[in-house]
Amino acid sequence: MKKQRIEFLFVMIIMMLGHLFVFTDIPFKWKALCVSLYGIIILVTIVSLMLENRSPQNTLLWIYILLFVPVAGYLFYWYSGQLLLKGSLFKWKRLNDREVLEAFSRRKKKKDEKRLKDHQKGFSLYLERGRIAHADTDTKTTILRNGRETFHEIKRRLKEAEDFIHIEYYIFRSDRLGSELIEILMEKARAGVEVRLIYDALGSLTLSNTDIARMKEAGISVHPYNPIKSGFFNQRFNFRNHRKIIVIDGKIGFTGGLNVGIEYLGEDEEIGFWRDTHVVLEGEAVQTLHAVFLLDWLDVCGERLVKDERYCKAIPADPDGLVHVVATGPETEDMSDHYYAMISCAAKSIWIASPYFVPNQAIRTALRIAARKGIQVRIMVPEKNDGFLTQYASQSYYPEALKNGIEVYLYKKGFLHHKIIIIDGGLASIGTANMDMRSFRLNLEVNLFLTGTASIQDLIRFYEEDLEESRRLQPVEFYKRGMDERLKESFARLFSGVL
Questions:
Q1: How does it sit in the membrane (predicted)?
Q2: Which of 130, 180, 309, 463 is most exposed by smallest CB count within 10 Å?
Q3: In the annotation, is 138 catalytic?
Q4: What is the DSSP-derived secondary structure letter of residue 263?
Q5: Does 440 score more than 60 pLDDT?
Q6: Residue 174: what pLDDT?
Q7: DSSP per residue over 435-477, as a string?
Q8: Three-state SS at 275
Q9: Which residue(s) pair with 421 in the sheet?
Q10: What is the CA angle 255-259-263, rounded to 5?
Q11: Can 112 be counted among the known catalytic residues?
Q12: Helix axes 335-344, 118-131, angle to 10 degrees
C-alpha cells in the first residue's frame, strides 16, 4: 500500500502543479519550478516502471505516454498502467479457486478418448495439466445464435426453476429486457426459489438503485463485483468481471457473449443488428460452470456455498463429445495461452470471430506461421466497431495479417460481438473472452472449449452464413487507405496494451 500512497500523492502534486502553471499568473521562476518538480516526478516514475521488468514494448509505451502527454499521461498511467498489483490482490482467490477446482476434478470420471484425434487429445491434456480443467463428458451443448433466441430460452428456463437461480453478468441494464428478467426473478424469489445475482459494478452502471432495492426486497441476494470506490486507491477497479453465467437448479447453464440489454436484441437504433452467440449447457459441465459462479459468489460476499452438495451435484446428460469449462482472470492470465495452444494444433483451418482483434505477439506469431504452412486462417471482425480506439487498434493489425495470406472479413450486417474459434472443424472455443489484452490480462472470463461435439457443426454453419454477410478485405484496397487512416491506426495501436 505504501507504493499506492506515494503514487496518489504524486497525482495530487501533479494536478496542483498543472493548475498553478496553466490557470494562475505566478512569476516565471515559480512556473519553472513547477515544470522541474513535474519532471522529477516523471523521472522517478519512469525509473520505477523500468525496475518492474515488464515487456520492452509495454515499458516503452508507458514511457512515451508519460513523456509526451503532460499531466494527462501520468493520470492515464496511474489509472491503467499500474496493473502489476494484481498478483497480490488476487493471490487469495487464485489459491482458493485452485483448491476447489481440484476437488471438483476428482469427482469426474475418466474421459473416453477413443474417438479423439491426436491434436484433440493433445489440447485436452494441455488444459487438464495447465488449468485443472478436466473434461466433462456426460454433457450436451446447444448453440443459440442471437439475442432473441437466447433470451427467449433464458426466460423459459427461469420460469421453470424450482430450487435456485444463480446469475452473473458484466452488463445488466434497467431497460425493457432487464426489467422483464427482474420481474421473473422476483416472482420466483417470492415463490421460494433461491435467487442470487452478481453484477459488475462498472459494466452495470445503468442498473438502477431502485431495481436493486426492489430485488432485495423480494428476497433476491444481490451483490456487485468490485465496487469502483473500494478499488480506487489500489487500482483494483481496473479488473472487471466480464463473465455471463446463469445456472438453474444445477441442471441448466448458460454462457456466451450476450449481456442483459436491449442492444443485444438488436433494438438499439444507433447500433442496429447485434450478432452474438450463447450456449445452453446440460449435464456434468453445468457443475463446473456453477463452481465458477460459486467461487465468484464467495469472493463478493464471503458466503461459502462451494462445498454444499446441494449446489455441487452433477446431473449427467446424454454424452456429446468433451466440454472443458475454463475460467481465467488477472490471477491466471492464461486465456492467451489457451488460444495460442488451439491455433498451434491446427492442421487444416483456423476460423476466428471477435469484436475486438488486438492480439498479442504470441497470437500473431501463431497465426502467421499457420498461414505460411498453408493452413486456412480466417478472421471475422465487425466493419464498424463501437469505439475509436478499438476500431483503429484492430485495423492496425490487418496489414500484417493480409501480408501473410490471412483472410480478413468485415461483418457488414451489424455489430458482430461473439467470440468464436474453430480449429479443423472439430475443436472450438466459445465464451466471453475477446481477442484483446483486457480479456487476456485484466478481466474475469469463462470459455467453453468443445471437442468433437455436435454443436461445433452449428458453429461452422453459422460462421459460413456470417461470411455471406461480410466482405473480404482485399490487400490492394486496404493499402490505398489515406494517411489520416494510417495515423489513426498508429495512434490507437499505442494503447493496445490496455484495450
A1: Multi-pass membrane protein
A2: 309
A3: no
A4: G
A5: yes
A6: 97
A7: BSHIIIIISBEEEEEEES-THHHHHHHHHHHHHHTEEEPPHHH
A8: strand
A9: 352, 429
A10: 140
A11: no
A12: 160
How many helices (DSSP H) and strands (DSSP E) are in the chain?
Answer: 20, 17
Minimal CA–CA distance to 393: which of 488, 473, 477? 488
CATH numbers and ranges of domains, the chain: 2-82 (no CATH), 90-109+139-320 (3.30.870.10), 335-498 (3.30.870.10)
Matching residue, cell 487498434:
393
Supply 440's cell numbers: 487476456
b/e map of 55-72 (b: 16 or more CB within 10 Å)?
eeebeebbbebbeeeebe
The pLDDT of residue 313 is above 90 = no
Asked whether the predicted pLDDT for residue 3 surpasses 60, the reply is no
Maximum C-alpha span of the chain: 82
Cell of 210: 431502485
> Is position 419 annotated as part of the catalytic site?
yes
Calpha distance 497→499 (Å, rounded): 6
Q: Which of 277, 257, 247, 263 minimizes the C-alpha distance to 432?
A: 257
Phi-psi bin for 346: left (phi > 0), alpha (psi -120 to 50), beta?
beta
Q: Which of 244, 278, 290, 338 is catalytic?
A: 244
Q: Which of 175, 249, 268, 458 is catalytic?
A: 249
Out of 251, 417, 418, 488, the active site residue is 417
Answer yes or no: 334 catalytic: no
Catalytic option among 111, 188, 242, 488: 242
Catalytic residue among 136, 276, 296, 424: 424
DSSP, collapsed to helix, strand or coil, labels residue 365 as helix
Q: What is the pLDDT of residues 402-417, one digit of tens each?
A: 999 999 999 999 999 9
Grid cell of 96 as nine digits: 482458493
Q: Mind listing the pLDDT tens digit for each residue in 225-247?
A: 988 775 555 557 778 999 999 99
Catalytic one among 188, 324, 418, 419? 419
pTM, entire model = 0.86
d(CA 258, CA 432): 8
